[in-house]
Amino acid sequence: MNVLVAGATGYLGRYMVNELVRHGLNVRVLVRDASKLDDIGPYHAPTIDRSAVEIFEGDVTNRESIQGVCKEMDLVISAVGLTRNAYGHSFYDVDYMGNKHLLEEAEQSGVQKFTYIHVLHGEKTDANILRAKIKFCDELKRSSIPSVVIRPTGYFSDLTNVLKMAKSGWIFLVGNGQARMNPIHGSDLAAFTVHQSLHKVGEFDVGGPQTFTYDEIAKLALRVQGRSERVFHLPSQPILLFARFLALFRPHQADLIKFFVLSMSTNGLGEQFGERELESFFRQYKLLEENEEVI
Ligand SMILES: NC(=O)c1ccc[n+]([C@@H]2O[C@H](COP(=O)([O-])OP(=O)(O)OC[C@H]3O[C@@H](n4cnc5c(N)ncnc54)[C@H](OP(=O)(O)O)[C@@H]3O)[C@@H](O)[C@H]2O)c1
After folding, report:
1. Residue-wise pLDDT tens digits, 129-146
2. Which pLDDT tens digit goes with each residue over 81-93?
3. Residue 234 lies in a domain
4. Segment 45-74, tens digit of pLDDT
5. 25 belongs to a structural domain
6. In a domain, 242, yes or no
7. In angstroms, rounded to a whole number, what is the distance separating the alpha carbons of residues 120 and 202?
8. Pocket probe mutation, ligand 1, options 40, 56, 83, 157, max atoms within 8 Å of Cβ
């Protein structure tokens, strides 16, 4: 079976590629810059062995640059999305139009299935990041290609922000800290995604094996950093007002703030899957960061 992974240089994409290779599948990766494959990925996600994959360089926002990318592929998995940096693009450009270009390529090449990494409760807000993702899901529903939509909770990688705050000994949470979520490790999410992509069709809400309130995650991060408990709760309304003001000149950052406030004030619970625990991830991440500082 031939599988294309788009977004292979990202946090999740790297685990996905390695999981597919472990399954003995033929993997093609769509990347903007192949040299990134040799480096450790975001949040210490693994490198990718170039000899184990076929490489296609292209940018999903540029339709011509990805022409032929899906040729001879049976399955396409897209983990393409804007997360931390925008590089001049909007969520509409990448999460919607970019994925739409990829879907059009998949349709032209007769791909059998298209898997898309969406987000849990993506339908609940007016943040542009979610609007773009929902719009793409609508395209997928209209397409003749059977699809799998994975709707994950927060990734462990996202919670490293809490771990970083804990290092200073002060954690600021938005809301009362009581919203619950079951975050998931990239490796567990990759295993779930590959399994569903090979065997199912439909939409799947998924998270990791443990459920926490945000307060509990904050306390865990402080414990891992060896700090005493100092968690502060900020009301969401002033932050949302600030985001509206920021949107006038930094729309990408403003949108991420809106998304962040929403995430911290809503329960984010998906089907419990996987075995990796947040505390081990935090401890390992802390060690890796400390080693990097020494180097
Ligand atoms: N992080 C979370 O907690 C979370 C939770 C739920 C859902 N999600 C969604 O899951 C997906 C993957 O998340 P992640 O944390 O793995 O993100 P990530 O590390 O930022 O990876 C995103 C990938 O998309 C690629 N990409 C971006 N723009 C592109 C373009 N124009 N052409 C080709 N490739 C492009 C990036 O390539 P470069 O390396 O070249 O930049 C990277 O490989 C995203 O759609 C995200 O919104 C994330």
Report:
1. 889 999 999 999 999 999
2. 998 777 788 999 9
3. no
4. 999 999 999 999 999 999 999 999 999 999
5. yes
6. no
7. 14
8. 83
Return the residue whose CA atom lies nearest to atom 33 of ligand 1.
59
Q: Per-residue pLDDT averaged across 1-28, rounded?
A: 98
- Tell me the CA–centroid distance for residue 128 and ligand 1, in Å: 15
Structure token digits, residue 267: 């329960």
Question: How many domains does the chain contain in total?
Answer: 1
Q: Which residues constitute the domain of residue 198?
A: 2-154+183-207+269-276
**Secondary structure (DSSP) of 6-41:** ESTTSHHHHHHHHHHHHTT-EEEEEES-GGGGGS--
For range 175-200, the mean pLDDT: 97
- Burial class (CB within 10 angstroms; exposed 0-12, middle 13-18, buried 19+) of 180: middle
How is residue 84 written in tokens? 């931390």
Cα 79 to averaged position of ligand 1 atoms, centre (Å): 6
Query: What does the pLDDT read at residue 259?
Result: 87
Tell me the CA–centroid distance for residue 64 and ligand 1, in Å: 21
Task: Locate the ligand 1 atom nearest the alpha carbon of residue 183 and give its number.
Answer: 3
CATH number at residue 134: 3.40.50.720
Residue 264 resides in a domain: no
Global pTM value: 0.96
Ligand 1 atom with the shortest distance to the CA of 32: 40
